[in-house]
């Protein structure tokens, strides 16, 4: 079967979400520098990275199908929390998130006949975490490659008191916005 899109990501979570809505895809991950620019706002940051990833993918393989890329950032105040560098970094992030409400920004970039973008912003409230919980969570291995050092779809879900917005956006690909962008490119989910 010919894929409907090219996914510019190796994220197993994004693959699972596309599978959930029955979009067929080929995978072509790309690497871009994910460092925030000086004084870059979180919204600008995720939009820029998603667009850079889709552009890099098109630049590498040309255009055979629309290219979908996404970027997710956990934001507390105006601080962008990326993936933890090590245990100390992860525990620092979890300590800051403990008992607080933060935002998760996920931007999507879809390059096909045209370039479309969308953003999902979700509020996530954490309960207070103990040091022992945070250390045990780090030892589980789950926070290692996750923005903000947690996975809402995994063990990290026990830290979440509430969310307002898109659960799939926090996981890494907001499905409502993705479906809207796909429809703009002529890819209908219900035929």
Give the structure's gist in a few sentences.
The protein has helices at 12-20, 42-61, 87-97, 131-140, 167-171, 175-184; strands at 5-7, 25-27, 67-76, 79-81, 101-111, 115-126, 160-164. With 191 residues, it is α/β, with parallel strands linked by helices.
Helix fraction, binned, reads 25-40%
Please state the overall shape, judged from the principal axes of the Cα atoms. Answer: globular
Largest sheet: 7 strands, mixed
* Count of discrete alpha- or pi-helical segments spanning 4 or more residues: 6
User: How many beta strands in the DSSP annotation?
Assistant: 7
What is the gyration radius calculated from CA atoms?
17 Å
CATH class: Alpha Beta
Which segments are poorly predicted (pLDDT under 50) over 5 or more consecutive residues? none
By CATH, the architecture is named: Alpha-Beta Complex
Q: Determine the structural class based on helices, strands and strand pairing.
A: alpha/beta
Q: Strand percentage, roughly?
A: 15-25%
Quickly count the domains. 1
CATH fold-level topology? Maf protein
Give an overview of the whole structure:
- β5 (101-111) and β6 form a beta hairpin.
- α3 packs across α4 (131-140).
- The chain has 191 residues and is α/β, with parallel strands linked by helices.
- The chain is built from six helices and seven strands.
- Helix content is 34%, strand content 25%.
- Strands 1, 2, 3, 4, 5, 6 and 7 form a seven-stranded mixed β-sheet that branches.
- The mean pLDDT is 95.
- The protein has helices at 12-20, 42-61, 87-97, 131-140, 167-171, 175-184, and strands at 5-7, 25-27, 67-76, 79-81, 101-111, 115-126, 160-164.
- The chain has one domain (5-184): Maf protein (Alpha-Beta Complex).
